[in-house]
Design a protein that fits this description.
Layout (H helix, E strand, L loop, with lengths): L3 E5 L3 H13 L3 E5 L2 H7 L7 E4 L8 H11 L5 E5 L4 H10 L4 E4 L4 H12 L2
Parallel strand pairs: 1-2, 1-3, 3-4, 4-5
Helix pairs in contact: 2-3
Length: about 120
């Protein structure tokens, strides 16, 4: 079994697409459709990395990211979002220290390469 990736996004079509792409490449994929579900699943799932959407209802990705970092300091997290403004990238990469910042839409090859890079030991 390959590395386990958790995909967190409130859009089922996006989650299904990412799951299909990553499973085709040999990754195991765990899904969560909200920040709360992500945090709940982290208590029993042990993903090697997380792809985290920012724009979600109730608890946005920034808040989820901060909670993940409080408890799982070394777990790689990539921001996966349509927000492609420089200020958002600066916040994600330099202020919060996300491992990567991937903007939607993304190419299949680009996504796979960036996930592989993130989970490389």
């Amino acid at each position: 079994m390959g590395k386990k990736i958790m995909v967190v996004d409130d859009e089922p079509d996006t989650v299904d697409l990412i799951k299909l792409v990553l499973e085709t490449e040999g990754f195991e994929v765990v899904t969560a459709f909200s920040g709360k579900e992500c945090l709940d699943k982290l208590s029993f799932e042990e993903p090697d990395a997380i792809l985290l959407d920012i724009m979600m209802p109730e608890m946005d990705g920034w808040e989820v990211f901060k909670k993940i970092r409080q408890k799982y300091k070394k777990l790689p997290v990539a921001i996966l979002t349509v927000r492609n403004q420089d200020i958002d990238k600066m916040l994600g990469l330099h202020v919060l220290k996300a491992n990567d910042y991937i903007t939607k839409p993304f190419g299949r090859k680009e996504l796979v390469e960036r996930v592989k890079k993130m989970v490389k030991s």
